[in-house]
Amino acid sequence: MTEQRALPAPKAGAGVLDLLRQFRADPSASETYAADCLARTKLIEPRLKAFEHLARDVAPHRGPLAGIPVAIKDIIATHDMPTTNGSPIYRDHVPAADAWVVERLRNLGATIFGKTVSTEFAWRHPGPTVNPWNVAHTPGGSSSGSAAAVAAGLVPLALGSQTLGSVIRPAAFNGVVGFKPSFGAIPRVGVHPLSPSLDHVGFFARRVDDVALALSLLVGTNDGDIHGRPLPSFEIDIDEGVIAMDKPRLAIVRFAKWERAEPEQQALFGAVIDKLRSAGAVLEVLELSALDAVNWTAINTIMLSEATVIFSDLIARYPDRVSDVLKSHVESGKGKSAMDYLIAKAVQEERRAALDTELEGFDAVLTLPAFGEAPQGLHWTGDAEYCAPWTFLGAPAVSLPAGFGRNGLPLGIQIAGRYREDVRVLRAAKWVESALAFDPGLPPILD
């Protein structure tokens, strides 16, 4: 009789596809993995502060994501856990129904692991989460807890949202993969709005393959989200992942704000360009000056105008339970005229249409996700200006870890592309990820 050898248990920091392959080889591993993640979380959470709420029952369910624990940003409704929206107003609020994306995850067999800390209504005023690489630094925002939880190896997949830079920037600050799909790719029914013309649901994971799988399973439309724009369907094989592009042609986009980037971030970007060229990619500088000239003003006009409509009544009803930051933003929004808003919306549509022509001959854009390492302190979540163009356009964008800065905190790069060409961007990002062969590992959160 052949002796049966026990397979090694899944390790903290394993990717979703890694885990699914291991669960297929050893079904018993899927029975215990989420429980092991919960035990690790309870050990680390007092210092990391990534979660508002943890599930009591993390038993696996049947489905293609069976055994995979997924953390949910706390502006996304869950019927069996509080959804606080990062605000004391909703401290004990338990929604009557799941958000569309949470219901889809449950139907796929995923374990809804817990609710992660968000800034107040996903709009700048930070929560208590720290950066797992250095607890004196911000994890970024607004998807603070989701990024930190994946970085610390507590879960392999987490949901976030992005209205300016709330997936891409914290992914870079925490050394994980962040993906913001094209605008409208995933219904936002049950996700607290900030700016309906800009809000996206996105993902944090450890590999490009993992966010590609998540997108393939979660794309859809729903009548409750009038901004839905269905993507062409595609499938991800768990053995192969997304098929990497063969030596992509990448547009190097620095923007006028380049000089504000930290020297270490600039140096890393240059080293990445050299490495990708050596691996066979074609890279050429592209200015995109017309987009750069208008996007920051226009995106803030849209966001402030729409958010003011959403939050003015809430501030009037609960003036002592909202932050001065929220009040200040809403006051700024009241200063925007209807004409300002309509012009900004017209510019948004114009620049989105122009991007197809501007990127002719290129597979994707290579740019920065942030100006450098995560800032020190927890009072500010960092500058979103490098994320804003792709949110403004609704274009797909991926943040990849690529190195470390002078303080030992992660640095990243960003791959973006044309609206609704998510698979093309993911294929380019997979090639870049393979060419860089960089793995930041797990942070020393307990050291």
Describe this structure in words.
- The structure is a single chain.
- With 447 residues, the chain is α/β, with parallel strands linked by helices.
- It has one domain (16-289, 355-436): Amidase signature (AS) enzymes (Alpha-Beta Complex).
- The protein has helices spanning 16-25, 27-48, 100-107, 144-151, 168-174, 208-218, 263-278, 289-317, 324-334, 338-358, 388-393, 422-436; strands at residues 51-54, 69-73, 111-116, 157-162, 177-180, 200-205, 249-252, 282-285, 364-367, 397-404, 410-416.
- It has an eleven-stranded mixed beta sheet, with helices on both faces.
- Helix 1 packs antiparallel against helix 2 and helix 8 packs across helix 9 (324-334).
What can be said about this structure in brief?
With 447 residues, the chain is of the alpha/beta class. The protein has helices at 16-25, 27-48, 100-107, 144-151, 168-174, 208-218, 263-278, 289-317, 324-334, 338-358, 388-393, 422-436; strands at residues 51-54, 69-73, 111-116, 157-162, 177-180, 200-205, 249-252, 282-285, 364-367, 397-404, 410-416.
* CATH topology term: Amidase signature (AS) enzymes
Please identify the structural class as seen in this structure: alpha/beta
In order across it, which strands form the biggest sheet?
A: 1-3-2-4-6-5-10-11-9-7-8
Q: Could you list the spans in which at least 5 consecutive residues all have pLDDT below 50?
A: 1-5
**Count of distinct structural domains:** 1
- What is the residue-mean pLDDT, rounded to a whole number? 96
Describe the oligomeric state of these chains in a short phrase: single chain
Q: How helical, in percent, are the residues? A: 25-40%
